[in-house]
Design a protein that fits this description.
One of its GO terms (molecular function) is proton transmembrane transporter activity. One of its GO terms (cellular component) is proton-transporting ATP synthase complex. Keywords: Membrane, Transmembrane, Transmembrane helix. The chain is mainly α. About 90% of the residues lie in helices and about 0% in strands. The chain has three helices and no strands. The longest helix is centred in the middle third of the chain and has 31 residues. It is elongated. The mean pLDDT is about 85.
């Protein structure tokens, strides 16, 4: 991360220290909801077309990783802002 981004995050944390915690909480809740929706869709699709299970699982794992990355980015930004 460059110094400009770090300075902006530090200034945001100085304005309201609780804002970083709220941001991390929102990213964690959003990731949890996203993961639930992803696997719900994979289960429904597999129930409707069992022969597409392999393709659905690949898509499910890929989108699962992307949803979890959102939460990890929020966690990293939370610790940077502290």
């Amino acid at each position: 991360m460059n110094t400009t981004t770090t300075q902006v995050l530090a200034q945001a944390a100085d304005i309201n220290p609780g804002l970083a915690a709220i941001g991390f909480g929102a990213s964690a809740i959003g990731a949890g909801i996203g993961v639930g929706l992803i696997w719900s869709a994979v289960i429904s699709g597999t129930a409707r077309q069992p022969e597409a299970r392999g393709q659905l699982m690949g898509i499910g794992w890929t989108t699962f990783v992307l949803a979890e990355l959102v939460m990890l980015i929020g966690l990293v930004l939370f610790f940077i802002a502290q």
